[in-house]
Amino acid sequence: MAFRLTYRRQCRYNTKSNKQRVVKTPGGRAVYQAIKKKAKGPHCGDCGMALIGLPRLRPVEYKRLKKREKRVNRAYGGSRCAHCVRSRIVRAFLIEEQKCVKQVLAEKLSQAKEKEGGKKKSKK
């Protein structure tokens, strides 16, 4: 059964932000009810995966939330997923280790050069 209804808001075009649903009232009338847009929700800035533990709301509705509801209790909690944070930490640790190894090798090389220079002088 097709209902002949009019929009209850000022916008009278079938746009993305003006979707309507037909609802029967308790009095038996059929009226339009406005549908809110579905929220995509927050995603990881590195890999693009949806962040777990955060609500899927429209951007304006995040303003009304408390700080603890907008993020996860972790470093980069509201913007990066746990896997990406872990990989960042491991990468930083390995880079630091590589710097230490380079420094140790450079010291060994310089000590070896000093010993060679000392031996040549003592032979003469």
From TrEMBL:
<dbReference type="InterPro" id="IPR008195">
    <property type="entry name" value="Ribosomal_eL34"/>
</dbReference>
<comment type="similarity">
    <text>Belongs to the eukaryotic ribosomal protein eL34 family.</text>
</comment>
<protein>
    <submittedName>
        <fullName>Rpl34 protein</fullName>
    </submittedName>
</protein>
<dbReference type="Pfam" id="PF01199">
    <property type="entry name" value="Ribosomal_L34e"/>
</dbReference>
<keyword id="KW-0687">Ribonucleoprotein</keyword>
<keyword id="KW-0689">Ribosomal protein</keyword>
<dbReference type="GO" id="GO:1990904">
    <property type="term" value="C:ribonucleoprotein complex"/>
</dbReference>
<dbReference type="GO" id="GO:0006412">
    <property type="term" value="P:translation"/>
</dbReference>
<dbReference type="InterPro" id="IPR038562">
    <property type="entry name" value="Ribosomal_eL34_C_sf"/>
</dbReference>
<dbReference type="GO" id="GO:0003735">
    <property type="term" value="F:structural constituent of ribosome"/>
</dbReference>
<dbReference type="GO" id="GO:0005840">
    <property type="term" value="C:ribosome"/>
</dbReference>
<dbReference type="InterPro" id="IPR018065">
    <property type="entry name" value="Ribosomal_eL34_CS"/>
</dbReference>
